[in-house]
């Protein structure tokens, strides 16, 4: 979705009210890979873990960033992934 070098630059920038500060290092890594456009399987392969682990991280990320949609059927859909990537890009970018 977004160039890896741009993501690294965005991750290096901080702002005082950074919503990404709530995330663990593993969750930040998952979110970075998600923003690069990797699937859950791709993220799992890159992190040398199981897809279930990635799904747990994504669930925690969406909860911590208040990204869980009102519609329960949409929780696993593309909307949550896109919203998480946008939160990452907005949260990592300075004012």
Largest sheet: none
Q: What is the CATH level 1 assignment?
A: Alpha Beta
CATH H-level superfamily: Response regulator
Q: What's the multimeric state?
A: single chain
List descriptors.
95 residues, mainly alpha, Rossmann fold, 5 helices, globular
Describe this structure in words.
It is a single chain. The protein contains 5 helices and no strands. The chain is mostly helical and 95 residues long. It has one domain (4-92): Response regulator (Rossmann fold), CATH 3.40.50. The protein has helices at residues 4-12, 25-35, 40-47, 51-64, 78-92. The two termini are 22 Å apart. Helix content is 60%, strand content 0%.
Write a concise synopsis of the structure shown.
The chain is mostly helical and 95 residues long.
Give the topology, please.
Elements: H1 4-12, H2 25-35, H3 40-47, H4 51-64, H5 78-92
Helix pairs in contact: 2-3, 2-4, 2-5, 3-4
